[in-house]
Design goal:
CATH architecture: Alpha-Beta Barrel
CATH superfamily: Aldolase class I
Bound molecules: flavin mononucleotide
CATH topology: TIM Barrel
Shape: globular
Strand content: 15-25%
Number of strands: 12
Order of helices and strands: EEEHEHEEEHEHHEHEHEHEHH
Distance between the termini: 18 Å
Length: 353
């Protein structure tokens, strides 16, 4: 009996298995609109048997895009474009989730295959905003948000969540990781504010908590809300796993349903001990200490490895990124390996061994 292929119920949603698509930026949209690329890209994972297909980082406001080519969820044209994609995912029996993001000081950057750095205004870039003016790596400095501007951010996430539901998504994930706006606020490395959104732990996590509250109020009681956090800055003086346990508890009290446990991304100087499942201990610790469901992510590549993560109670599900890019049918293959009987698309039934 495979634990990886057991269903998981969160609020009113039942996920058919615990192999989930980790958010992956495609840097391929125009005006924040997903197109045929996004349909085929995300659709292939639904056909490949993933229980949950999460979108890439989707901006709640144009200025919150990482690059000009990011997808977004700030207008009704985008809602209509996403609907085509959620319909396809649902027809395959998978659930659809949207990762909501504001890129903060890491906004307006050149997409990876075109170079590195900030896009100048003359080429369509814009002034990024942040907790303070400190730049990330080679990027331009941010304009620090005023206190009232910070207080307005939760409403942007709530509006994005509402549109995500209108577009047919079953759940939303709040991107609180990888050095984007919310992570910049909660990390002591990147928040030198002296107002109500800075200073001690409580001040620094306030934006995250206010977003969680606003989104829950908007989506109601039936819709799962996930938060992806960076569990460690992997840097002396930075955010730690102990801080993450505290934050996860506070998010759980604000009815966040699952902590997607990533790490890093807030300083280029971090020394990250990459290796198979290197972030799994963070998911295990948060799940054990807080009693909140977690998702594990990072260098999870084998069926047996994924099975062990769920079976041993480190996490309730695994998020896969690069392994799915290499093999979009990874879940179907893993089910075969683990002896789980899962439905294949009728069109592919002759290949099921
Ligand atoms: C092409 C690509 C794009 C990514 N974009 C995002 C993103 O939009 N949001 C996010 O939270 N993580 C993003 N990530 C990180 C992945 O979700 C994942 O956490 C990371 O790749 C580690 O998992 P893996 O070892 O299975 O690839 C991206 C990773 C890749 C490879």
């Amino acid at each position: 009996m495979s634990h990886l292929f057991e269903p998981l119920k969160l609020r009113d949603l039942t996920l058919s298995n615990r192999v989930w698509v980790s958010p992956m930026c495609q840097y391929s949209a125009t005006d924040g609109l997903p197109d045929d690329w996004h349909l085929v890209h995300l659709g292939q994972f639904a056909a490949g048997g993933a229980g949950l297909v999460l979108t890439e980082s989707s901006a709640v406001t144009p200025d919150g895009r990482i690059s000009r080519q990011d997808v977004g969820i700030w207008n009704s044209d985008q809602v209509a474009a996403w609907r085509r994609i959620t319909d396809f995912i649902h027809a395959r029996g998978a659930a659809a989730g949207m990762q909501l993001n504001h890129a903060g000081r890491k906004a307006s950057t050149i997409r990876p295959w075109d170079g590195n750095g900030s896009v100048p205004a003359s080429e369509g870039g814009w002034q990024s905003v942040g907790a303070d003016a400190q730049a990330f790596g080679v990027y331009d400095s941010a304009r620090p948000l005023t206190e009232s501007e910070v207080a307005a951010i939760p409403a942007l996430f709530a509006a994005g969540a509402r549109r995500a539901l209108d577009a047919g998504f079953d759940l939303v994930e709040l991107h609180f990781a990888h050095g984007y706006l919310v992570h910049q606020f909660y990390s002591p490395l990147s928040n030198s504010r002296t107002d109500g959104y800075g200073g001690d732990f409580d001040g620094r996590v306030r934006l995250a908590l206010e977003i969680a509250e606003a989104v829950r109020a908007e989506v109601g009681e039936n819709v799962p809300v996930f938060a992806r956090i960076s569990a460690s800055d992997w840097t002396e003086g930075g955010w730690t796993i102990d801080d993450s346990v505290r934050l996860a508890r506070l998010l759980g009290e604000r009815s966040v349903d699952l902590i997607d446990t990533s790490s890093g991304g807030n300083t280029p100087k971090a020394e990250i001990p990459l290796g198979p499942g290197y972030q799994v201990p963070f998911a295990r610790r948060i799940r054990a200490d807080v009693g909140i469901p977690t998702g594990a992510v990072g260098m999870i590549t084998d069926a047996e490895q994924a099975e062990e993560i769920v079976a041993s109670g480190a996490a309730d599900a695994v998020f896969l990124a690069r392994a799915l890019l290499r093999d979009p049918h990874w879940p179907l293959r893993a089910a075969n390996t683990l002896g789980a009987d899962v439905a294949w698309p009728d069109q592919y039934a002759r290949a099921k061994s």
